[in-house]
Amino acid sequence: MRGLREKTFIVAGGATGIGAATAERLASEKAYVAVGDINLAGAEATVQRIAKAGGRAIAVEFDLSDDTSVRGLVDRTIAEFGAVHGLHNVGADLSAGNLGRDGTLLETGMDVWRRTLDVNLLGYVRTTRAVLPHLLEQGGGSIVNTSSGTSLGGDPSRVAYGVSKAAINQLTRHIAINWGKDGIRSNGVMPGLVMGETVKSQNDLAMQEAFLAAARTTRLGEPRDLGAVVAFLLSDEAEWINGQMWFIGGGAHLRQ
Q: Highest taxon of the source (predicted)?
């Protein structure tokens, strides 16, 4: 893909799943990657796989809910590689203690709301605010945010998660509207059910069967499916795509 070779990208949430797959795909295109995550061991494992395949990457421990930590991720990336050319936001709090207590509006406690919005939404605000000045200074760059198919059709449960993802869609468009003329591209992906580590650990066969039944394809998603799309959106191949939210879910949502 054009515009990835020897460019530097931050994957904010690259220890596992979609983030790890994106980091590995970017590195396979000869990009340099900073793999940030609160799960340092997982980020280091991603970097080890990249290095084994001949790529160049670093692992950085950081917390989406902490301003200083986010700035540290960006500073470390620039110190290591000399620049930053793009950002993939993919982190979220999917823990049992948070997402596991996210239910209906009447069931979900305010602590879950605060934590979900602080990480899933404001975390993306923090990373973007830290990276955007550097992208503007160098004349442009690309940002790809990870939302969710839930933001399209709603969900009878996980209300805080769904609201945080719908807000990411608006944040993504806001960035494109305000800085597109300055060379900034801001797009997002809305995954359907992706068989990453979290989904596999849940082993919810009924959920998997329901998602597959709704799809217009023969299988569920894999992290590599999203990694390929994100890499494309970060690349110069997508230079005429801006402010768009792409549903990547096997055709489960057919819409304009």
A: Bacteria
Picking from 116, 112, 93, 101, the residue whose alpha carbon sits closest to that of residue 38 is 93
Least confident of 50-59, 107-116, 211-220: 211-220
- 106: containing domain: 8-248
Mean pLDDT of 10-16: 98
CA angle 226, 231, 235 (to 5 degrees): 150
Among 161, 179, 211, 246, the one annotated catalytic: 161
| Phi, psi dihedrals of residue 85, rounded to the nearest 5° | -115, -10
Both tokens of residue 74? 């960006």
Collect all residues with Cβ–Cβ distance below 8 Å to 176 and sequence separation of at least 6.
Answer: 184, 185, 186, 187, 242, 243
On whether the pTM is more than 0.90, the answer is yes
96 lies in some domain: yes
Please indicate, yes or no, if residue 253 is contained in any of the structural domains: no
Let me know if 32 is a catalytic residue: no
230 near 88, Cβ under 8 Å? Answer: yes
Backbone angles phi, psi at 253, to 5 degrees: -115, 115
- Please check whether residue 1 lies inside any domain of the structure: no
Q: Over range 132-145, report the average pLDDT.
A: 98
